[in-house]
Write a structure and sequence with these properties.
Structural class of chain A: alpha+beta
Order of helices and strands of chain A: EEEHEHEHHEEEHEHEHHHEEEHEEH
Function (chains A, B): Catalyzes two activities which are involved in the cyclic version of arginine biosynthesis: the synthesis of N-acetylglutamate from glutamate and acetyl-CoA as the acetyl donor, and of ornithine by transacetylation between N(2)-acetylornithine and glutamate.
Number of helices of chain A: 11
Largest sheet of chain A: 9 strands, mixed
CATH architecture of the largest domain in chain A: 4-Layer Sandwich
Strand content of chain A: 25-35%
Number of strands of chain A: 15
Protein name (chains A, B): Arginine biosynthesis bifunctional protein ArgJ
GO biological process, one term (chains A, B): L-arginine biosynthetic process
Subunit structure (chains A, B): Heterotetramer of two alpha and two beta chains.
Catalytic activity (chains A, B): L-glutamate + acetyl-CoA = N-acetyl-L-glutamate + CoA + H(+); N(2)-acetyl-L-ornithine + L-glutamate = N-acetyl-L-glutamate + L-ornithine
Distance between the termini of chain A: 45 Å
CATH topology of the largest domain in chain A: L-amino peptidase D-ALA esterase/amidase
Oligomer: homodimer
CATH class of the largest domain in chain A: Alpha Beta
Helix content of chain A: 25-40%
């Protein structure tokens, strides 16, 4: 696998995109993106588990039943959630407008929205906006699309990799919209992955589902997602590699590349948490099961108290113990070791569940970095997981407390 | 039932208390309390469900098995959690010292701690401190005890009520130590209730357990508690009312008074959340079950985004919908109505899951108050619940990020 620097989704053969300002956002920022696949693509998706689902989520759920997908339309600024029958109608109109402009059938179009809940979309701006975005589709439009899906994000999130399958170079690239909100279980998260791999739909489904669990779900707690969360992958087969299916030997090579793309985007989302001054990785080792490893890691990275301690560069490991203790997973926590720092250069602060004397200044140096690694060794099994998050800052409270203003 | 203004636990016949500075806290603040019952009392308790239990919790669990209890010793400043065998030894020594000073047996003494996790208690200060506190026990010491159990709390939490049972006045009074940390599922919560009621132990157990569920557990999420959480009730029988047991007609009268005491203390804890500028009550009506009512109400009151919106006086009801949607309970949320304000003077912002046009200025007036009431009507059943919390402020991040400094 190799990383393709500065490349994005429109560098994947067969994909065009655009991102424009339609007028939904009053700030003048780009607020509408269209992604188009020249060939019919197969799709897989992970949609929000929140019981309150935004209108675009409901419409996209429906259209994901079609055999193939050719376009995705995304707007920022208005979430089109809690908007009733009119909201559904508007999401459907967005789909129809894209289908009309691109001369494809409605069911080949997916729709996604992010922004304020409870406001109706200004369709008099959205519909001409879609027309404009469709007319601007190009092989250079990926970065504009990456920009148009953002809300309070401070940087565009995009990544591209190449992997060789059966002698053919296959590209995977994604763009994402980050945690508008710092708290993992409320992040509105959008991610759109394009690949030219030739693959069976069932395998694409399986691999994408698995990949989401260890990437986006490790920043956004499963079952605790926002009204609009959506991760979608389209595969158009244009790499012309030998068809990848459940019996192919190359599965792991593709899976590794797909996992990399999703994890990198997930990390960017964590890094760009609203108001964040630092971001952190929690590496959890030797858990009794894969799922418990995830639950423990997520519990630590989601703790307000841990987040605030990281903000204050305070080596308050008791809060990590506390977050492990109330996590909904079983393990004997009297064996846990905790370290701050990276694998090569770390300082142990807890041994067998009990605090050690440690050099506070050295740990403060580690915690003063913009990236903080917390290593937890449960010494109770063979499984590991990583979770990502950011600190809790004054700035977060300020942004989050005045979101609508 | 009548409220007894300015009365506290030592106004319940037969109870003495004291609160002193032993030297655990460097600030010179009171840090050690002893509560003593002249007569042997029966006890009931709710202890933390965190898998990481502090040493005093483990020792108290053991001593709660005895037939009767006569004393509780509590220190603030050091939680004696994650302190290993030495921590257990120290908690036991605290018990022994109280027993020695008061000439009672060890198993009649309960022990409780709150403060920083991972530090050993300075026993050279604690043991003389206990001796001093025991020598100062008095019928006026309740308020000193209420003060000595505090950490970052800004006011003493105490309440007392009287109820007549079989012609005899029965008193119930409690003191509590609040949410050092604003986030409900991490609040370290201590509560000590004294009553002179004459009651069977099984009934006391049952009523206290029920009462905790709708009071302290509605600010501190069940199963998500800190290493040191503890709520204890002692009943010494000195009111000489006819014995209350499962067959008594007066149960509901006593229960009402007990619930009042616990809920008032729970509300004080919410009000005094770390760095809080406002506190809020979430009143949830017409849920399909009692438990789902609790889960939905707690989900809203625990949401960082709702808390930050309340801080910013932002009528961002979408965040309330979102928190209802990811709550782990079932209900058709397309029927939900949401109001801000109190029952008599409220403004509806959501009807049947969809936002209404409302007077933003009027809602802002409501949200600018120091107490904010959020009313949620699920219109899906007969059950209701209330939950309490506070806003998320700059001040919280500041205090929480520098807790150890």
């Amino acid at each position: 696998m190799k990383i393709l620097p500065n490349k994005t989704i429109t560098d994947v053969s067969g994909f065009l995109a655009s991102g424009i300002h339609s007028g939904i956002r009053k700030s003048g920022k780009k607020d509408l993106a269209v992604i188009y696949s020249e060939k019919e693509a197969i799709a897989a998706a992970a949609l929000t588990t929140n019981k309150v689902k935004a209108a675009p989520v409901l419409v996209t759920m429906q259209n994901l039943k079609s055999e193939s997908i050719q376009a995705i339309v995304v707007n920022s600024g208005v979430a089109n959630a809690c908007t009733g029958a009119k909201g559904i109608e508007n999401a459907k109109q967005m789909v129809e407008q894209v289908a009309d402009c691109l001369h494809i059938s409605n069911e080949k179009v997916l729709v996604s929205s992010t922004g304020l809940i409870g406001t109706q979309l200004p369709m008099e701006k959205v519909l001409p906006g879609i027309e404009k975005a469709c007319s601007k589709l190009s092989h250079n439009g990926g970065k504009d699309a990456a920009e148009a899906i953002l809300t309070t994000d401070t940087f565009k999130k995009t990544i591209a990799v190449e992997v060789e399958l059966g002698g053919k170079p296959v590209t995977i690239s994604g763009i994402a919209k980050g945690s508008g909100m710092i708290h993992p279980n409320m992040a509105t998260m959008l991610s759109f992955i394009m690949t030219n791999v030739k693959m069976s739909k069932s395998l694409l489904n399986q691999l994408f589902k698995e990949s989401v669990v260890d990437s986006y779900n490790m920043i956004s707690v499963d079952g605790d997602s926002s009204t609009n969360d959506m991760a979608i992958i389209l595969a158009n087969g244009m790499a012309e590699n030998p068809l990848l299916d459940e019996n192919s030997e190359d599965i792991s090579k593709f899976k590794e590349a797909l996992d990399f793309v999703n994890k990198e985007l997930a990390k960017m989302i964590a890094k760009d948490g609203e108001g964040a001054s630092k971001w952190m990785e929690v590496s959890l080792y030797h858990a009794p099961s894969k799922e418990s490893a995830r639950v423990f890691a997520r519990s630590v990275v989601s703790s307000n108290l841990v987040k605030a301690a990281i903000f204050g560069s305070d080596a308050n490991w008791g809060r990590i113990m506390c977050a492990l203790g109330y996590a909904d997973a079983d393990c004997d926590l009297s064996k846990v070791d905790i370290f701050f720092g990276n694998k090569e250069d770390k300082i142990q602060v807890v041994k067998n569940g009990i605090g050690l004397l440690f050099d506070e200044n050295k740990v403060k140096e580690i915690l003063d970095q913009s990236f903080v690694n917390i290593i937890i060794d449960l010494k109770s099994g063979e499984y590991q997981a990583k979770a990502w998050g950011c600190d809790l800052t004054y700035e977060y409270v300020k942004i989050s407390g005045n979101y609508r203003k």
